[in-house]
User: What shape does this take?
Amino acid sequence: MKKSISRIIGLTMLIIAIVFIMFALNHPEKSFPWSNTITWLLYGVYFLVTVVLLIAPKIKK
Assistant: This one.
């Protein structure tokens, strides 16, 4: 994957995460239909993928 594509995808994911957090803080009554363990696992995977996409282009081969 090209560096610019990786950065664009990573930044897009970061923006989506920020918008989601803002929505979640303003709507505490909303929830997911599954357990909190699955929710936190999904958050962790999303965060990990975002970090990898943002940092990977900076690593030299």
In short: The mean pLDDT is 88. The chain has two domains: 1-30, 33-60. The two ends are 13 Å apart (CA to CA). Residues 1-30 form one domain.
